[in-house]
Amino acid sequence: MIKTGFYKMKILIGVDNMARFTGVELSAESIQKAREWFADNAQGCINEVVSGEVKVNDIESYIQWRKESIAEALDGCYDYTLAFLQKAHTIQTGECVALLP
To answer: DSSP 3-state assignment of 24?
Structure first.
């Protein structure tokens, strides 16, 4: 479950339960690839800090936070966010739709 604000939700992926975004039914494969993209992005942030390319105030805390982000992304904790749904949609269709009109 997501523990953000007052909202606690998670999109469950199954044969009969797919997420929809802008009228497109997102496949389990697209959702999994989007989860992996967000996890890879967080790992890239860790790599930049470890290499010294990017500076942060507290390296250990930052790395711990990003590792938690990786686990949460792979667990589907961000599946409900617009950024996640947009990325899954782009992965599936090749189109990047605007979030706001």
So the answer is: strand
What is d(CA 67, CA 92) in angstroms, rounded to the nearest whole number?
26
Q: What is the pTM of this model?
A: 0.79
Q: By the 8 A CB rule, do 70 and 1 touch?
A: no
Token duo for residue 17: 């339960």
- The residue count of the chain comes to 101
Q: Rounded CA gap, 9 and 7, in Å? A: 6
With vertex at residue 70, the alpha carbon angle to CA 65 and CA 76, rounded to the nearest 5 degrees, is 120
**pLDDT tens digits for range 10-56:** 444 433 446 888 888 999 999 999 999 999 999 999 999 999 999 99
Residues in contact with 46: Cβ distance below 8 Å, sequence separation at least 6, in sequence order: 62, 63, 66, 67
